[in-house]
Amino acid sequence: MEHRKRIRSRSKFVYIIILTAGVLMSLTILYSLFIGLKLNFAYSELLDNSYGIKANIADARYELLLSRQDNSDVHLRKSWEYLDAAGVYSQKLTSYEDPLLILSSPLENLIIKKNVNRLNTLLLEYREFSNIYINKNSTQQDSEEKLFQSILSITNEIDAGIQSLLNIYEKRFRVIQFLLSGFAILLCFIGIFLYFIYDSQRIKFTKQIQNVTTDFERGLHKSTKIEKQLSEIERKYNTLLQNLPGAVYRCKNDSNWTMEYISDKCFEITGYKAGDIIDNKNISYAEIIYEEDRRRVWNEIQEANERRKPFQTTYRIKTESGIEKWIWEQGKGIFTENDDELNAIEGFITDVSDQKAIEDQLYLQSKVLEVAANSIIITDLESNILWANKAFSDLTGYPLNEIIGKKTNILKSGEHHQSFYAFLWKTILAGEMWRGEILNKRKDGSHYHEEMVITPVKNDKGEVKYFVAIKEDITERKNAERELINSELRFRSLYENATIGIYRVSADGDLQIANPTLIKLLGYDSFEDLKSADTGSHYVDVEAKTFFRNTLYEKGRIFGFESEWHKKDGTIISIRESARLIKDSEGRIVCYDGTIEDITEKKLTEKELIISKEKAELSDKLKSEF
């Protein structure tokens, strides 16, 4: 009511001016509000769409790089999802309309419309291209890079077009504000207020655009870094394969063991290049396995696959040059996650021919030691028995499962002084071999003699770690030696105390032995004195000597041959001589042993008896004649 009174009290002109000012102020306020709302909607909607396109394209490429790195479908599907999201934001730009119907659609600008349509086409091409990009073909990688740069360029052009359009709206708003600001202070303040609101929004969205640009650049840097990492991983992978002592493979579970992949090391093992074996191009892997081993290898691998366990097997192959090699293989079946179906076999093969030869040699040596006639044991530095053969068990009476881990002192007989063992240990601990005879005790308590050689075993540093003892049972030999000594003592007693002469002459006629009785019988002072004399000169009758030797060499022995000999002083004695030839295993004469008995007194007695008999017969004859 007061407002109406004030209007009425003023003149029509003033009323018109006030009314016009009020209308202009109202129009200024309304237009400023409409323009501010339009700018807010434009910045929010259009820049959000532009940001969404850039962000999703960057994420799509990042997931595509990850998919190429590990061949994972998960990352590929995520890449497609991001590409779909970028397409949605592009469609929003295409279908954008001013909700207040004050400003025109951005796509009414032909340049922006053309760029948006071109962007949609490139997004479709990039999605189709991602299906084949994971094959890691260098040409495809270059094409992908060019396509990505084209998308990035088009996105920047759209941003520039939108920014240009918004700048036009901003200029219009500022012109109107300038024209209406002179009509009313309130309109000016309102315009300034709206301008500051707009400016703050512009700064905010400009910062967001800068942040998006920074994130995008970081994404590009991260993608480059990932590519370098992938290249380094590939280099390490190839280096690792080359340094492995064998070949890595992936094959089908079929009768040919069809190789899907095998590393280049297969050439060193088989003589065939990887390309010759992959997909059975020139030869299948099964064909180079010895026919006698194929069925066994197949059964072992199938059994492991059924149990979902890794397998290890050894078999022979025939190389391209015809050489036989032993192969050690380890692998595992690869099953699908969904239906648990055997997809392939992955594993590793290596040439173990040298190891196999060593194993065979060790096996042979082990068997030789097991069946050796001499007992053999291996001990540590503390004299604990680590290994023994069957001969040791037979010799000592201890079963092998009972003796292992025991100390060798359980064999002590108690017959040796402690100094004997001290010297033994001092010798072998110094790394020297000890050889000697020892009296030990069996499990049943009986004693036995053994000849033993203990050899220290040293490590690479020259330190003594083990001892190997080789033992030979010499109990029978010791008993035989004892009997021989006793027999020799008995023979020597008989030899030296005999009442007849005993001698031995070699095949060459040299006197080898003569007992004291013979030396005394022939009048010599010592054996050396007798040996220096010519044995053939003792015969008085040379023909008797010849007859004796001929008979001896013809019959091999002669008994009771009587002849006369010269003593050293020339005295003639009658002797009775017996001799026997000694021959070796080949029948050659070695020597002959003989005995000589002095029968001089007997011969004299016989002569006296003969003379007495002759005298008695003569006396009887004279008596009868008389």
Beta-strand content estimate: 15-25%
Please give the order of strands in the largest beta sheet.
Answer: 2-1-5-4-3
Roughly what percent helix?
A: 55-70%
* Number of helices in the DSSP assignment: 19
The residue ranges in which pLDDT falls below 50 over 5 or more consecutive positions are 1-15, 100-108
Gap from first CA to last CA: 235 Å
Overall pLDDT score? 78
Give the overall shape, derived from the CA principal axes: rod-shaped
Q: What oligomeric arrangement do these chains adopt?
A: single chain
Question: Short summary of the structure?
Answer:
The protein has 626 residues and is α+β, with helices and mostly antiparallel strands.
